[in-house]
Amino acid sequence: MASSEFQDQLTQFLPKMRIWALALTRNATAAEDLVQDVALKTLIASESFVPGTNFSAWVHRIMINHFISARRQARETTDIEQVPEMAVAAPQQDSTDLREVSRVFQRLPEDQKHALRSIAIEEKSYEQVAGECGLAIGTLKSRVHRARLQLRTEMTGTARIAA
Fold it and tell me: Are 46 and 6 in contact (CB under 8 A)?
């Protein structure tokens, strides 16, 4: 059993433990649970504490170890029923989407098509493409923007308004 001096030291240390726990959990309720668990573990392990050593570091290590163990345990025991359902597009949908993008891309004006292909697909810099085409960078950016906007409009049926 822990001595009354040890218990007093732990009691005085609780506010600091709450700060650590809140930093770890980012949740007030979980932090309070962590502090209680660690305080209990600390009291149980009081015989292993060497007086005169760093009490703060010793308690902090207990908290970190307990927190990590609890996270691992929670991760390992996740029930399949608790995993959210995620919609995954069928492979044929991907092919259909690609054909639709290609169809819409082909209808773009030639200057927009070239600008978008160079920037988005070939991953060239604006400076490089502007130099190759003899355009101002602003003109090139405008063409890419209009091409993206046209693709988005035709693919979704609506234009996205810039904020």
Answer: yes
Q: Are 148 and 159 in contact (CB under 8 A)?
A: no
Contact, 19 vs 32, CB < 8 A?
no
Buried b (16+ CB within 10 A) or exposed e, 109-139: eeebebbbbbbeeeeeebeebbeeeebeeee
- Cα dihedral value 112, 117, 119, 124, nearest 10: -130
DSSP string, 86-102: -----HHHHHHHHHHHH
> Which residue, chain included where needed, has tokens 């003109």?
139
Give the C-alpha distances (Å, rounded to integers) separating 63 from 53, 146, 149: 17, 55, 52
The amino acid that residue 80 corresponds to is I
The structure's pTM equals 0.47
The per-residue pLDDT for 72 is 85
Domains (ranges, CATH) in the chain? 4-77 (1.10.1740.10), 103-156 (1.10.10.10)
C-alpha to C-alpha distance for 144 and 111, rounded to whole angstroms:
9
pLDDT above 60: residue 78: no
